[in-house]
Amino acid sequence: MTTGGSLSGKLFVALTHLIPPLAPALWRWWYNTLARKDAAGELLFMNYGYADDTTPLTLAPADEPYRYPLQLYRQVVAGLDLTGRDVLEVGSGRGGGAAWLARTGQPRRYLGVDLSDAAIVWCRQRHALHNLEFRTGRADALPVDDESFDVVVNVESSHGYPDMAGFLAEVRRVLRTGGHFAFCDLRTPSAMNHLHARWRERGFEPVRQADITAQVLQALDRVAEARTLRIQNRVPERWRRTIEDFAGVRGSALYAMLDDGRLVYHCAVLRKL
Questions:
Q1: Which residues contact 210 (CB under 8 A, 6 or more apart)?
Q2: Which domains does the chain have, with CATH numbers?
Q3: Which tens digits make up the pLDDT trace of 186-216?
Q4: Burial environment of residue 94 by CB neighbours within 10 A (0 to 12, 13 to 18, 19 or more)
Q5: pTM, full prediction
């Protein structure tokens, strides 16, 4: 996710881009701060969601409040059979998507790796499944062995990485030959085109890729009222604009950039050659 319109949000983004070595520490601070603010443990997802009226996801009642974030996860791994596989999620955040895929996809093993120590501690306490574990680690230095996973999942996380080339090299390192990289995130159009070229240069073959900006905007529209109310009720006034930008609520800088084409949101499945 990106912060945007507020002064503090602009400063945060500027520092992550102007001083790349600072980016991991800044993002760790940001996510740890969000984790501490969520005392009630309600924040299971931090993605913008995906609206799908054609083939809506059938969910258990307990999962229904998270329909749009879960539909994004379903879209990311669409066409991949996770049954009995070893799956790694890089940037697992609050673990909601990891827990859902571990339950419903029935992988042999699902490992969530995240930069935030606080998020990892929280996930270990919240999500207790026999095939699910969480570990602290960086995207460009993954704490796993070579060729140890069949699928790598990365949901709306990579835009915060200071070394995207290093991350792609790590994905290739940890995937078994023929394994798949399931990815979604937002970029400027030119940056997204550059990323597509990098995939091929790094030894990945696109299996499926799509621009899902419209579906992401629809999801943001459908949760806008509830999300805005939650921010107003729980966030101090001086932080509200920054959090609104981060959350992509209607009227925020991020929402406007997705709406007018300055940002695009893509989803892809790539195969390691």
A1: 266, 267, 268
A2: 7-272 (3.40.50.150)
A3: 999 999 999 999 999 999 999 999 999 999 9
A4: buried
A5: 0.88
